[in-house]
Each structure stands twice: as structure tokens, then as C-alpha cells.
Amino acid sequence: MRVDLNCDLGEGFGQWTLADDEALLDIVTSANIACGFHAGDPMIIRRACEGAAERNVAIGAHVGFRDLAGFGRRELSVSPADLRDETLYQIGALAGFARAAGSRVSYVKPHGALYNSAALDCGRAEAIASAIDRFTEPLALMGPPGSQLQRAAETHGIEFVAEGFADRRYTAAGTLTPRSVTGAVIDDPDVAAAQAVRMVSSGTVESIDGDDVAVSVHSICVHGDSPGSVRTARQVRHALESADVTLGAFA
């Protein structure tokens, strides 16, 4: 059994740092690097790409709403055409730094409010898939299994990577529990690790209400902006490898 382990990186801005990118890059196999809209600036993006390239970690464009103040977690009104162009813009910005580092962008993963809304909104999912279509190199699309993002990827002939979250609780409908709900974020590394192993080995996860939910995934995410993210990522990796799961980038 083989699975990818990804993490959101490069999410600082200026003098503000959010996560220990260097430590996380030693653990994960794919890095979702912020492209400047919800977080990240040219220097941070460059360092993240160089760190990923040095470790042979796959680089993904972590595209989001143009919302630095809200860290991309606020719902914004953006037309599908504008969202398509803004997505392509972010991919292109990251691609320049990835190439300069001797690597390339391999996939796209929406961030925050865009991730959640595009999973349900076919217009937004189509806009993201259209941006990938317009890019000059083939890119995969990462998102929730059974989502509008998966349907848009399949319509466009784009490789889709189904993703599960080690450090987030799920609803009975198989969606992420909103962060505003108590207990939505798992801060215990052992609990997160056990959830990751369960998703990979059985294709199920326990919802926040105690129900069993089907989630067939090929990549596991640990949020870099969560407290103790390095410890959690390290524990998740150790638990997966102890369960005879081979870790490797899908791209």
C-alpha cells in the first residue's frame, strides 16, 4: 500500500512566520505551497520551493482567494471567469520559482474557503479545472473524494488525487467539520495518526458524531498552521510506516 503525505507550507508573509517549513519538508512527500493570495511572498515562496527541490518533495500550488487579511478562510464572491484567471495566475507565479529551484509544479490544491466551496460548487470547481487545462504542463488536482472538484477533474481528463485529513474531524456527510465547531481540529498527534492509518487501511473515518464515513484517499494532509504540526506530521508518518504503508509522492 502506498500513500502520499502532504502539508500546507510557505504560509507566512514578510516577517510573519506560521510554520516550521524546514522541519515539515523533512517529513512530508508533497508540499502545498501558498502562491501569494492567502499567504506567501516572493522570498517565502522561493525558500519553500528550494527546500522542496532539495529534498525531492513534490510541489503543489496551494491556490486560494485573494484574502491575505483573512488567510483565505473567508468566503468571497468571485465570478467563475475571475476565479479561473486568478487560479492560473497563482499557478504561474509558483511555477517560476519551482523551475528556478530545479523542480516543477505537479499539482493544484485549493486552500481554505476556496477548497470547501469548490468541493460543493460545480462552477468554482470548473473554474479551477479550466485554469489547470490552460496551463502549459499537465497538473493533477487534489481535493475531497466524491466532490465537485473530482467531477470537474474527470470531465477535463485531469488526474484527481483524493485527499483525507489526519488533523480534522469529519461530518456524517463526509465533509470537514467547520473550524468554528468545538473539536473540529484534532490537536492530539496520536489521535491524528490513528485517524490517518484508519483512512488508509479501511477507507473509513469516524465522524464528529461517531458515525462511520467512507473516505477512500490517496494522500493524507497535516496542516502546517496547526499548533504542534511538526510533532503531528512526524507521528502520522511513523504510524503509517508502522502499518506497512509506503510513503511517496503521487506526482
UniProtKB/TrEMBL annotation:
Catalytic reaction equation(s): 5-oxo-L-proline + ATP + 2 H2O = L-glutamate + ADP + phosphate + H(+)
List the Pfam families hit by this protein, alphabetically.
LamB_YcsF
Q: Keywords on this record?
A: ATP-binding, Hydrolase, Nucleotide-binding
Q: Which SUPFAM superfamilies match?
A: Glycoside hydrolase/deacetylase (SSF88713)
The residue range of the signal peptide is: none
The processes (GO biological process) annotated in the record are:
carbohydrate metabolic process
The record's section on InterPro entries has:
Glyco_hydro/deAcase_b/a-brl, LamB/YcsF/PxpA-like
Enzyme Commission number: 3.5.2.9
UniProt GO molecular function: 5-oxoprolinase (ATP-hydrolyzing) activity; ATP binding
Q: Which NCBIfam families match?
A: PRK05406.1-3 (NF003814), PRK05406.1-5 (NF003816)
Q: Which family does it belong to?
A: Belongs to the LamB/PxpA family.
Can you state the subunit structure given in the record? Forms a complex composed of PxpA, PxpB and PxpC.
Function description: Catalyzes the cleavage of 5-oxoproline to form L-glutamate coupled to the hydrolysis of ATP to ADP and inorganic phosphate.
**What is the designated name of this protein?**
5-oxoprolinase subunit A
